[in-house]
Amino acid sequence: MKMQESEINEAFRAEVREWMSQHLTGQFAPLKHASGLGAEGYDAQLAKEWERELARGGWTGLGWESQYGGRNAPLTQQVIFHEEYVRLGGPGRIGHIGETLLAPTLMAFGTPEQKARFLPGILAGTDYWAQGYSEPGAGSDLAAIRTKAYRDAATGEWVINGQKVWTSWAHESEWIFVLARTDEVGTAAASTRHAGMVLLLVPIKQAGVEVRPIRQITGTSEFNEVFFDGARTEGALHLGPVGDGWKVAMYLLGCERGASTLGQQAHFRYELDLIIELAKRNGTARDPLMRQRLAKADLGLQTLRAHALRSSSEDTLFRVASVSKYAWSNWHRDLGELAMDVLGEQGELVLKDSALAALQQLWLVSRADTIYAGTNEIQMNLMAERALGMPR
To answer: In whole angstroms, what is the distance from residue 210 CA to residue 130 CA?
Structure first.
């Protein structure tokens, strides 16, 4: 995809700037430039109200088809929105998992009834979702999951037992999509590795679900453990055929590792600009080696953006998902280290300045980038298998 500033795109960019300037003020001012849960000034309830404000302005579901209530905006305009959103201080999106991960998967695999039930709440910023994939013994090796689901013969409902971990925002969500094993399609032996799985849509606020926040190195709790002990959901709330949950789960991960990184890179640019500004201010930029590292980071980010735009069409998006994830997570981890080196001795202190504290937070958070959503080792294995033409 080529980014060209046509008159239509220039008008759209101006529309975004005007709306953001008028609306990210007043009660929403504390959210400005707050990266997400745990960041200074990021209040979850205020962030949810901001999501509803975005929805009222028509800025959610930009790329969704009009039949689902979206704008059907071309990818160029979606990128423009993300760029201007970050430039003008737009906070991290608490509705991200529902809007950019679950919604496209619903559109691809959901029944008409499921789409009618769940897409409007995601679009309006009133329903929030968590992702129930990883388990204590099944992180990057997702096929090792042990959470089980079976149907209650009396009610037809699904009954779920097991545990998920590293579940982002579960404590702020109403729903969670859960990858589980089921032997409904055959014998118990059929439910092994990639076979016999189901992706279920499960309400969180029920007696059979317990959410336990995990305190992170940042001192905050963005992640959670989620325990299912006889949790229930309706019999019809499975995405795709029963037993074919792995295919649906992989489609969703393609959305996570592909299209959503276009918006992510706009925030990366904001972080890099903060580091460059600090390096100029504290004199670090006078060091030739530091200037070289800053230039390398800038070129790396431009490369990430070019790759994301080149591979943004749906027919290539899922084939290069591992390449994208491996590239951006390593670049961002290195950016966190660069931030601490530019901070110097200041980085060892608890900083009150919000901009400097954001750079400390960047370093702490980026330590996990090469682990979550598939470790570096897993991504390299996938890339090697595909290069050799091996079956997935």
So the answer is: 13
Q: How far apart are CA 250 and CA 321, in angstroms?
A: 11
The span from the CA of 68 to the CA of 308, in Å, is 25
Q: Pick from 62, 38, 61, 59: which is nearest to 50 by CA?
A: 59
- The tokens describing 58, both together, are 């028509």
Bridging pattern class, strands 129-132 and 175-181: parallel
Q: Which amino acids are annotated catalytic?
A: 256
Could you give the CA distance from residue 81 to residue 88 in angstroms, rounded to a whole number?
11
Rounded CA separation 129/174 (Å): 6
pTM comes to: 0.86
pLDDT digits (tens, 9 = 90+) for 113-171: 999 999 999 999 999 999 999 999 888 788 899 999 999 999 999 999 999 999 988 99
Alpha carbon distance, N-terminus to C-terminus of the chain:
28
The candidate with the shortest Cα–Cα distance to 67, out of 120, 16, 31, is 120
Tokens for 38, please give them: 């745990």
Q: What single DSSP character describes residue 98?
A: I
Give the CA angle between residues 205, 146, 259 to the nearest 5°. Answer: 70
3-class state of residue 25 by DSSP:
coil
Residue 243 near residue 170, CB atoms below 8 Å: no
- Give all strands (DSSP E) within the chain, no chain letters: 129-132, 148-151, 158-164, 175-181, 197-203, 209-213, 224-233, 238-243
Share the mean pLDDT of the chain.
88
Side chain identity at 193, as an amino acid letter?
A: R
The alpha carbons of the chain give a radius of gyration, in whole angstroms, of 21
Distance in angstroms (rounded) separating the CA atoms of residues 326 and 380: 8
329 vs 5: CA distance, rounded Å: 29
Strand partners, 227: 163, 210
β-pair type (148-151, 158-164) = antiparallel
Residue 30 neighbours by CB under 8 Å, 6+ apart:
41, 43, 46
Pairing of strands 224-233, 209-213: antiparallel
Residue 341, both tokens: 């080196």
| pLDDT score, position 354 | 72
